[in-house]
Structure formats: structure tokens, C-alpha cells
């Protein structure tokens, strides 16, 4: 949904109703995606051309396979970044030798349904320390919600 349309739809809302707005009214319904066989170098090139620091990873039927973020690329470029969870050290070290997105993506990412609310999204983002949530219906990607989208919404309804 474009900013002008979003502003028109949300004009009647005020900030205390912000948390009840549905994800489908705020999400980016056409996020740029990559496939699991996209090269890491190709991913870096694509990241330079967009504002979002992530790509949902999908198959040819738009089934969500994972998500790849700038943090995943950091592990490729500098694999010795300290990890908080000991069990993830090996997985992160393996990223330094990865050549495709499928090797560095986060599999089974936390997702949200388009009918859920901004309040529910913020709860998930806070609980999992995330800034972006793929929006899915079943296993199919239908959008992407970022914290930036919520900030824009707040600025509109304020």
C-alpha cells in the first residue's frame, strides 16, 4: 500500500488505536525476495539497491523458506563476530564459507499473519528482538512488515 493511500485509509485513526490496526493495512505487500540459490555476492548487490536490510527467501511458488538479513552477511564477511548463544557459533562460522543464500538464511523465521494487529506484531518483535516479520498465509509469503513501517504509521496517525 502506498503512503498516500495508507494516509487516506488511516486518517480517521488516532494514536491510541494504532495497536489495533491490521498488518494487511500496513505491510509491504510486494517485498523484494530472493531464492535459496541466489549467490551471496548477488545478494550483496541487491541489498545495496534497497532500503530494507533483508530479503525473504522463497521458492518458485512464493513459499517462505527463510529470511536473510544484513546480519547474515556480516557473518560471511567477518565470521569471528562474538555470539551470545554458544550453540550458534558453529552455524555462524559455516556462513563464512557459504556461496548461496540458502546456506546463510535463517530457516523457519518468526512470521505473522496479515489479520493480526500492530500490537501483536510489536509483541513478537520485542520478544524475539526482530525488526522485520515476513507476513504469511499458510506457507505462502504475502508481505513483509518492518519496524520502519510501524514508525511511518505512527507518524501518520499521530
Model description:
There is one protein chain. This protein has seven helices and five strands; from the N terminus they run ααββαααβαββα. With 158 residues, it is of the alpha+beta class. The chain has a single domain (3-157), classed as CBS-domain (Roll), CATH 3.10.580. A three-stranded antiparallel beta sheet has the order 1-2-3. Helix 3 (70-77) packs across helix 4 (88-95).
Structure keywords:
CBS-domain, alpha+beta, 158 residues, globular, 7 helices, two-stranded antiparallel ribbon, 3-stranded antiparallel beta sheet
Helix/strand-derived class?
alpha+beta
User: Strand fraction band?
Assistant: 15-25%
* Beta strands, count: 5
Mean pLDDT: 82
Low-confidence stretches are: none
Quick structural overview:
By secondary structure, the protein is an alpha+beta fold. The protein has 7 helices and 5 strands; from the N terminus they run ααββαααβαββα. The protein has one domain (3-157): Roll (CBS-domain).
Question: How is the topology of this model organized?
Answer:
Elements: H1 3-10, H2 40-48, E1 54-58, E2 64-69, H3 70-77, H4 88-95, H5 101-104, E3 106-107, H6 118-128, E4 132-137, E5 140-146, H7 147-157
Antiparallel strand pairs: 1-2, 2-3, 4-5
Helix pairs in contact: 3-4
Amino acid at each position: 500500500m502506498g503512503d498516500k493511500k495508507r494516509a487516506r485509509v488511516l486518517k480517521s485513526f488516532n494514536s491510541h488505536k494504532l495497536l489495533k490496526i491490521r498488518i494487511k493495512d500496513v505491510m509491504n505487500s510486494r517485498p523484494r525476495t530472493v531464492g535459496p540459490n541466489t549467490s551471496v555476492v548477488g545478494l550483496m548487490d541487491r541489498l545495496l539497491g534497497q532500503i530494507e536490510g533483508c530479503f525473504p527467501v522463497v521458492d518458485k511458488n512464493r513459499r517462505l523458506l527463510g529470511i536473510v538479513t544484513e546480519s547474515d552477511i556480516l557473518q560471511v564477511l567477518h565470521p569471528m563476530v562474538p555470539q551470545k548463544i554458544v550453540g550458534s557459533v558453529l552455524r555462524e562460522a559455516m556462513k563464512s564459507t557459504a556461496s548461496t543464500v540458502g546456506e546463510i538464511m535463517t530457516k523457519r523465521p518468526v512470521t505473522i499473519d496479515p489479520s493480526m494487529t500492530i500490537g501483536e506484531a510489536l509483541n513478537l518483535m520485542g520478544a524475539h528482538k526482530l525488526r522485520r516479520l515476513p507476513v504469511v498465509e499458510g506457507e505462502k509469503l504475502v508481505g513483509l512488515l518492518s519496524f520502519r513501517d510501524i514508525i511511518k504509521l505512527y507518524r501518520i496517525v499521530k
